[in-house]
Amino acid sequence: MIPTTPVPAKDGIANPAPLGLCAFGMTTVLLNLHNAGFFELNTMILAMGIFYGGLAQVIAGVIESKKTTHLGSPLLPPTVFSGSLLPASS
User: Whole-model pTM?
Assistant: First the structure.
């Protein structure tokens, strides 16, 4: 006999919150080291700010919204963290 109860689909995607929060933290540390005068603004800090700090947070925010996680969706929207880091890195 065929079971009539629905089987929930398994989500094979890991939690994207650590990616987004680590991207925000690492980019903030690098930009603060530049602001403190330890390093000049070179291509490494600029690339980390744009790609790791900005693009990774956009991807993590989209994945978090698709997973419908109620805690992570407000923390990682693409416009809050990455929108504030992209102008600061240039």
Answer: 0.62
CB count in 10 Å sphere of residue 65: 16
Work out the number of other CB atoms within 10 angstroms of the CB of residue 56. 20
pLDDT in tens, 8-35: 767 778 888 888 888 888 888 988 888 8
Report DSSP letters for 7-72, one per residue.
PPPP--PPP-HHHHHHHHHHHHHHHHHHHHTSS---HHHHHIIIIIIIIHHHHHHHHHHHTT-TTH
Exposed e or buried b per residue across 25-34, where buried means at least 16 C-beta atoms within 10 angstroms of its C-beta: eebbebbeeb
CA-wise closest residue to 14 among 55, 66, 50: 66
Per-residue pLDDT of 29-84, as tens digits, reads 988 888 899 988 888 888 888 888 888 888 887 787 777 666 665 555 544 544 55
